[in-house]
Amino acid sequence: MVPLLLGMQIARIAQSMVSVTLVLFTLNEYRSATLAGWVTFCAIFPGLVVSPVAGALLDRHGRRRLVILDYLAALAALALIGILAIAQALPAWLLVVIAAISSLTAPLSATGLRSLFPLIVPSHLWERVNAIDSTGYVMATVVGPPLAASMVAVWGGEVVFIVIGLIFGLAAILITRAPDPPGQTGTKRSLLVESWEGLVYTWGNPTLRRLGFSISVNNLVNGILTIVVPLIVLQNLRLTETVVGVVFAIQGVTGIVSAVVFGRIDSRNRERMMLALPMLGSGLAVAGLLLRMDLYVLLLVMAVTGFLNGPLDIALFTLRQRRTDPSWTGRAFAVSMSFNYIGIPVGSAIGGMVATRSLESAVSVGVLTCLASAAIAVWMIPPR
Length: 384
Known about the structure:
CATH topology: Growth Hormone, Chain: A
Low-confidence stretches: none
Radius of gyration: 20 Å
Number of domains: 1
Largest sheet: none
Shape: globular
Number of strands: 0
């Protein structure tokens, strides 16, 4: 387990660095919030589309080698972006294309690692391992964004892309020693058939389908904040890129505290409230930016939303594990996680376009999405 957790954590730090570096690089190089939103969208969305195929591959061939494949693909793509940028040979359209292509393997690591936990950890420890999983994400948010932002301020985004690629390479080396339950052997069915079956299974599972609607709507606000926070810090407050990273890190710090607190709570029969109440609270917190867009309010908003992510993540992960047949974990988790995550790239694209005209309008959209997702969680997710 140690190589798995260590490699996963290093890769997550790299992933949290990528999103901040992409936005800061695009804003500095091309001076366009709209382009920053679309680059973020293309760096995520194509991978979500092919996630059913990724899930079928994971169930068929196991997980470790496919996770390593994704990390090596990330290394190659980021190094290419950095080298082309240094050579002044990276037009905006090519940045978008490379980002889109590199996203195609992302579900292999995201789903491959998370779907390992219910296979190698006893069910009575799922809340605790999910707390570790959630803490890993928020720790990456503490370390990655400020590190990336500071490096961009000193070295420029071009060099930082190459450095992040090398971090993915290190994670790939560590994952080679991780446990890997065998995949299905002897199957003669088409990969596309198995991918379609995973899509049908997930859509036919009432919990996974309705979780998807609720979480994807809630994630719109996270995508919007990915664009809005740098704009507030850089354009409105006239502060440096390093401050952007610190603001995102505050969200991670409170998220770690929350994961520790809520990771010891038995979530059975409480999942809907552990989803809906944090969504509602996040909407109210983000609404604070409509009253005042200064640094103190921004830090408070990020601290509150980070803390509320703890119970939300634990309830989401555990509920999905409890209501998914173990033989479908690769395919179902790939589709479910992509459905849940789709709000991030869509929110980034919306945030970039709306924020170009009005930051207040972009924030208002984020508030409304939080309130809508809370309502969906209460009314749509089946209690049992």
